[in-house]
Fold each of these.
Amino acid sequence: MRNIMITIEYDGTNYGGWQKQNNTLSIQQVIEEAIYKITKERVNLISSGRTDAGVHAIGQVANFMTNSKILVEKIPNAINSKLPNDISVVDAKEVSFNFHARYSAKKKRYKYVILNSKYKRPIYRNYSYYVKYDLDIDKMKEEIKFLIGEHDFKSFMSSGSSVKTTVRTIYDVNINKQDDLIILEFEGNGFLYNMVRIIVGTLVDIGRGKIDISLKNIIDCKDRNKAGHTAPACGLFLKKVYY
Amino acid sequence: MRNIMITIEYDGTNYGGWQKQNNTLSIQQVIEEAIYKITKERVNLISSGRTDAGVHAIGQVANFMTNSKILVEKIPNAINSKLPNDISVVDAKEVSFNFHARYSAKKKRYKYVILNSKYKRPIYRNYSYYVKYDLDIDKMKEEIKFLIGEHDFKSFMSSGSSVKTTVRTIYDVNINKQDDLIILEFEGNGFLYNMVRIIVGTLVDIGRGKIDISLKNIIDCKDRNKAGHTAPACGLFLKKVYY
């Protein structure tokens, strides 16, 4: 028996998210089926965490136990040969039995892409959040800094999730404009349900002057109603998981 | 009557190319239908040139004559309201009657994207040419320079097109590596049928060491058989047309 860690890139557009569920095709299910075709084993693929419907990943990490004798360096191409072209295994490693893609994760980095142009741009339609309003990037750059550090991020959590604590630590944030694209990055020890999307939605609301309250105050309020809207899934990318 | 010039961005993935034809949906046809819904006029939309099936555009230009009284600054949103989300009008201007999107074009700039990584990356699957081989970028940078200037590019033209002359002038070339992506740009007074794709295919063949002949020699031979393969349509973007 071996414990195999794989790194996965996917375009989440046509899936109901990472996790297996009824009535919709999940990324987990598609990869488990591909592994079955290779190994004839029904594995339980454990990921670093769910991604919602429409969310993409550049560096999702998952692990599974297998008795298959396949050489680890052949695993990506073997699985990929059974995957559709919107999911790709880009790395595989044998890891110790106590490695758990979710519980062993120390940090995660997310990227969020905003398309800020006068008209929609088709090339980016599935990979960005289209915002037509003028955005005050300098203000957004100032505000985003308030996220750094250990805070209770309750204001930035959608209801419907049960967690022991809403305290998380953000180690790094970044916001960068490249032509029509505004690219945000967030690195932290964990993220609450919809946290990145609510932070981005709030930053957009602040940047266009729709709400006039600092992120610092919103954090202090611990009240979802004080934050802005939830930015759409299609702009979000799970970029990297650190172990 | 007014002559309206529009700039169009499209994702060519799901189309049989720019030009109207039987049995396949064309970008021209879809935009003409959208203009009809707005103006009730059956216009003839003239573009700067055809793009093949699967080729994208960031800055395709087209013009049409209309008796519609719609304000020119309202044209992009009006047409876009009738377009699918993989085509978008991003600019509109009223131009003189002698403006012709094809005959008035002075220069064109194309971009070509190669994905050069160990494994396929789903996010780029419709917008790049996946090449898994190691490529000698330095050699490709040296070779691409031979394209600059006025040359007979007969070696880089697919059969099936009739042109008066195969002489064209390339004003600028660029090749740039950004992580897994190799981005090439070509600016010239005109391009032969499949010229950019054959140039890119040849550069890839040279970069991976499959063929050992300089672009300079291939140009001199004026023989399509001396050049490399035709790179796929999905990596190609019509970036800008100059008037």
Amino acid sequence: MRYFICFSYFGKHYHGWQKQPNAITVQEVLEDALSKILGKTIDVMGAGRTDAGVHAKQMYAHFDFTEIEDTHNLVFRLNAFLPKDIAVENVFQVADEAHARFDAVSRTYEYWIVQKKNPFYAQQAYLVKYPLAIDKMNEAAKLLLDCKDFECFSKSNTDVNTFLCDIKEAHWEYVNDVLVFKITADRFLRNMVRAIVGTLLEVGLGKMDLGTVKAILKSKDRRNAGASAPAKGLYLTKVLYPQNIVKTHG
Amino acid sequence: MRYFICFSYFGKHYHGWQKQPNAITVQEVLEDALSKILGKTIDVMGAGRTDAGVHAKQMYAHFDFTEIEDTHNLVFRLNAFLPKDIAVENVFQVADEAHARFDAVSRTYEYWIVQKKNPFYAQQAYLVKYPLAIDKMNEAAKLLLDCKDFECFSKSNTDVNTFLCDIKEAHWEYVNDVLVFKITADRFLRNMVRAIVGTLLEVGLGKMDLGTVKAILKSKDRRNAGASAPAKGLYLTKVLYPQNIVKTHG
């Protein structure tokens, strides 16, 4: 039977989601916890990959196992076993063909910026001390909604077949002391959100105008865009699935 | 001339505010930064003491120095010099007799509780998984407003002359995912807020009734009250001074 697991993590101490040799990743720690508790080697397939240091407030993965009688108890045991920086929200059975990566309809990311030194956001937001023209940054964000090909914001050594993404929302707003960039799309390319944020920050700092952003999007060349914003400000906040893949949600 | 410095800190890596041998404290780190930048040994007097691991969102101290021409620049240099977990909000001249500790009219603390595992509050809130009767906890909090003598919540080996405190507000409320206890008084005894929180949690868990809380307050004996809640959930959030002690506020 197939199960979805919904969880969150504080990314600082992990080399991202995806398992790799010689570095601790969230996938490895999660698989280890599931395998120990269920008494069988469990492989999980994540909804996507997050880079080293990136956080997730809501992330999904799927795994296969025989019938789990008490998913509530499994969640309890997982949370007791996992370190403080990974928390499981729930585990629920899905249709056998449901796929955490391919069935995800959209992903939402947030990028958090603070404008003055704040001890409580030192590991959770990027400090930009200079004044930012938020209106201009929102105008530039709107340009993303009309764009389809995002090769200009993609890592050059990538293995994807297409650079097409459908951006559904992209805007900046203050939430208390934090300037939050929220962006939703059907899919994202590797490093894409941080490259977008780095570019929009150049606009906010007055170093780049909207015409230049348009030219960057057209150029399809990563070298033209702004520097990638630091990982610690980035959060995967929502992964959306169609209603019908969920069998029982407990 | 006398100056007030307003600052905040994330308490995890400090053995509290007050200087002591063989342990790093916020006072020591702040004095070191001021002394290095101003080129003279600077002693600061804090508005109060916070224990090891306790955070401060707003804390004040005073120090003496010759005229500082550009306090804005001093703040900038202090923030560049200080570690990430201490931030200076501002520095401003006050009347020569102004005193950060004795002139403070009130202090406000908050205690943060989360009710399920959350990687983003692992170092910043206390995790209480069991259901809490918030109404009962608020009824018990109200009893504090009528009380004057708080010896029952004071460390036994204390050097204070009086246990009298005037509690101005004390209540629990949810702020998004966090259950926040807010308490304001003219002064607090050592460990008092954490002892109060520990006691009110017993009420919320159904282990103690309001009659017992009344009896504890009357008893003036710390052994009767609940266990002290962990330091990581506690924040000093506001220190209030009379308007007239501020000469220039830069």
